[in-house]
Amino acid sequence: MSSVRLHRLLLVASLLVPAIVFVAAAAWNRTEVLRDNQETITRTTAILHEHARKVFDTVDLAIGRVDDRIHAMSWDEIAAPETSAFLQRLKAPLEQAVSIWITDANGHVRAGSQAWDPAVSIAEREWFQVQRERDTGTYISAAFEGKATRTLSFAVSRRRSSLDGRFDGIIHIALSPAYFVRFFQEAAPPGSHVATLIRQDGAVLARSPVQSANARLGPESPLMQSIAARPDAGGLSGISSTDQRERYYAYRHVAPYPAYVAFGIATEAVLQPWYRNLKVYGAVAALSALTLFLVSWLALGRAQAEQAALVRLRHESEQRLAAEQRLLQSQKLESIGQLTGGIAHDFNNLLAVILGNLDLLRKRIKDDDRGQRLLEGAIQGAQRGAALTQRLLAFSRRQDLTPQAVDVPQLVAGMTDLLSRSLGPSIQIVTRYPPALPPVRVDPNQLEMALLNLAVNARDAMPVSGTITISARAEEVAHSNDHGLSPGSYVCVCVSDTGMGMDAATLARAVEPFFTTKGLGKGTGLGLSMIHGLAVQSGGTLRLKSEAGIGTTAEIWLPQGEAVAAGASVGEAITRPAHRTCTVLLVEDDPLVLTSTAAMLEDLDHTVVEASSGEAALRILRETPSIDLVVTDHAMPGITGLELVEQIRATWPAMPILLASGHAELPERTGLAIPRLTKPFRRDELENAIASVVTPACEPVNVVPFRRI
User: Fold this and answer.
1) Distance between CA 660 and CA 635 in Å, rounded?
2) Which of 38, 115, 197, 661 has the highest CB neighbour number within 10 Å of its CB?
3) Neighbours of 185 (CB within 10 A)
4) Start-to-end CA span in the chain (Å)
5) Is residue 323 part of a domain?
6) What are the residue boundaries of the Histidine kinase domain, all occurrences included (predicted)?
7) Which residue, 593, 704, 664, is CA-closest to 337?
8) pTM of the predicted model as reported, rounded to 2 decimal places
């Protein structure tokens, strides 16, 4: 095809395509506008129907009460003032009622809720004549002007019959159309609308906006024709016979009464949003046509540039969608993390009781070898439970960390033997690092565990043999990104394998706790969750990249740290402080933990004073000046551990305090330096912690100093 002909086709398409899009968009938007409007009309009609039915039900019950009251009375008794007083009391709470009347068989009022002229007769009224001819049950009249009230009303009446079945007058309640109009105006949405209460034969009982009295819809009107075809409920569009305006209507039968409610909105009001949208669509279409025309006229190169812009737009849309999915995943993990963190905290309390009592029991049966073996097995099981809670706390980002500058190549080199034994001879380990790689700021023990976990996962993904590559690189993040990284300097530690990889569905759930693709008994599903929690708590993140059949890469992004001092190492030897006997105030709200910890303290030759709350602890401190040390839990009802520490420091500033808790995240307290003992703890760990508190010159053992979160 020649270039000239191609340009001519593009010129035609530049005008034709926007026109087609405009027509299609206009048709679609009109359908949407009409659908939304129909929902509004149907919903409003349902509200009007429910209101009208309740009003008629209330009036019917009121007529029934009057009938029950005068059923056994003679007309002289009915005409007594007490009956009219009863009608006045009955009418008072009925906002919809104008008046209540009892009329004899001749049409004369014998009792009423307001004053009346005894000479006046209603024998000529429509509802009186209908009820006199036959018993129609509850009858609704057309609108009329009351003779006594001089108010526009319509009557709801019921026939009274004598014992032999003869007509013996009626009871009727005059209702106010204005009451219904007020409700119509409150319930209807703003805009041009018509709300109508009509009788079954088309007589208009109430209408908003108000029109002349005694209006009636003829059988030829669209609304009455639709009611005749579908008596229960329906919708239609048509021209009103009262004001000749086209409207969209919905109506419902106020069963079991001979009345209907109808609600309609004028067509021009319904389509007003569509008209506004047409202007926008037209402007967009015209601008698009002009733009396309100029683009086609200029050259093919401009078209290629626009195509590139379209590709960029699609890419941005995909990035936005991916960011939204990551946000949803992050929110889900945050919710699960809060749940698992709470469970781990409670489980830590149970393990503290178990380990503490097992330690005490082992000390008491030193000569029983078989008992010692059984106890050792129980202790190992409890320690495995403690390790599991640490994984849960790692996932929920509530574990205790000791971050420091770590040289990644040096740390991995120190793990070589451990990795070789764990992975086996069929797995080749390759390391790649750039020169002068900056250190990372992280807890080295937790990073070792994370790398070992990733390596074992990689081995399991390669059933026969394969290669695991551990690498690292420095990265700069200039702006906050959708992975949750703040601007700054980072080191990305990567563990890659040549295994089976994961599909998109598995990759999306990989960091969820307890999710695993391994067989039964081969994995807890907490490994990646723990690594994710470690990375986030350390100020970084975890990214997973995988492709089925090719392999998986796990990236741990960690903030850069200060340079590692030469010869520095983690876990230098700590000298155990000398033992000192104290009077210890133990504050713990969990009775089991309180009993177990008290037993360990007594076994260490300390004198224990127990308190089950912060309030009780303060009272004991005031009454017992011999207290040498306070050991307190944090998560307690009433006064928390940190609040207790503040009050103790304010009154007894020299009092040593040890905070025992399973949570790493504590509320910020300015100026507090609180030694921490992490639950669950062993007897020896408790001994070392107490010694470090009462002997400040010694470094604490298993004591985590308070830090602000």
Assistant:
1) 10
2) 197
3) 13
4) 69
5) no
6) 342-562
7) 664
8) 0.40
